[in-house]
Amino acid sequence: MKRVTAAQLATALQQQVACCYLLQGQDWLLLDESRQAIKAAAKTQQFDEVLPLAIDNATDWDALYQACQSRGLFSDKLLIILLLPDNISQALQKKLLHLIGLLHSDILLLLQIPRFNLQIEKQTWFVALNEYAAQQATGAVLVNCQTPSLEQLPAWLQQRAKILELSIEQEALQLLCYSYESNLLALKQILNLLKLLYPDGKLSYLRVKACVEQASLFTPYQWLDALLEGKTKRAVRILHSLQNEEVQPLILLRSAQKELTTILQLCANDSAVDSSQPLPTQQLRQQFDRLRIWQNRRVLFTQAIRRMRYVDLYRLLQKLAEIERQLKRDFDADVWPQLQDFSLLFCKY
């Protein structure tokens, strides 16, 4: 299965329309643009009928199977769009396997899934999909629709600006990335606005600053990543953003407890240890495999573990326990200052 980013999809569609597409990720803008691009390309290949379905317990699979089997000589070609849940159960795997067995050249299948991993690649339905695609001249395409990371965002923004024939100064580029991190829709809108305001296409820092509003959208996962990396300013900035978005502190508390528990499991030691000793890093790879830690998070955990001693880890757990006791006494208690203290302490180690 060919793999492309959402930014590369347009070029891939110009070359040929595949028999199957799998969109993986959770960025609303990238998913929507990718779906629309595939639908438009499919229409040029006479796939005029579109059947969109969000898969849940109420899905009428028999009707879907019937739609695949009832294609006649004068029927329109069919584009099937299935929005799959995060958890693909055994029952759902069997239904997908049966569906793939019904595919033919007059059906184009578009699947959307929040997360794609090695476990899914090994599932029978996906193996069957790969085998079906290999038999077709056009093959299948996996499209990455994950929100670009902070490091990837400048390149994404430059590519968008190039399409709009905009030239951005480096400082202006940095300002846009800082102001609209994780909010690609807002970035798209601000670029379109700047295009209208400045027909010459030259975006200086002062021009961009005059238009920018703070609209970064963050998730608790980005806060946790900043903590693991030891990036104090970034962690505090994200925490303030989450507070402004009225995220429940309990969500952050439970998420942080889970991360610290994972570190504790990664550094488990059967023998007695001196609490002032650094956390061990000798067998991290085996421990990562045992706990099935995602590859992209292993580097983050390793960075945190190398900074910490056992006593530091216990202090952080104790700090979270104090915040939890306060929330149990009063669920509406203002614990944001304590969460900021926790963030500063975590990044300090």
UniProtKB/TrEMBL annotation:
It catalyses: DNA(n) + a 2'-deoxyribonucleoside 5'-triphosphate = DNA(n+1) + diphosphate. One of its GO terms (molecular function) is DNA binding. One of its GO terms (biological process) is DNA-templated DNA replication. Keywords: DNA replication, DNA-directed DNA polymerase, Nucleotidyltransferase, Transferase. One of its GO terms (cellular component) is DNA polymerase III complex. SUPFAM superfamilies: P-loop containing nucleoside triphosphate hydrolases, post-AAA+ oligomerization domain-like. CDD domains: HLD_clamp_pol_III_delta. Residues 21-132 form the DNA polymerase III delta N-terminal domain. It is an enzyme of class 2 (transferase). Pfam families: DNA_pol3_delt_C, DNA_pol3_delta. Residues 220-348 form the DNA polymerase III subunit delta C-terminal domain. Its EC number is 2.7.7.7. Belongs to the DNA polymerase HolA subunit family. This is DNA polymerase III subunit delta.
